[in-house]
Amino acid sequence: MGVKINWTPEMDALLGQDEDRAIADRLYREYPAMRWISTKLVQERRKALGIEGCGRNRSKPTGSKPRKPTVVTPPWTPEEDAILGTGSLEKVSVRLSRPTSQIQKRMKELGIAHFAQRGTPRSSVKLQAEEAQKERNKVRLIQRMRKGAVIAEGVASGYTYTALAKELGISPTAARNQFLMFLRVAMLPSMLGEEIPRDFKNIPSHVLKKAVCCVENYCINLEKAEEE
Question: Record's superkingdom (predicted)?
Answer without folding.
Answer: Bacteria
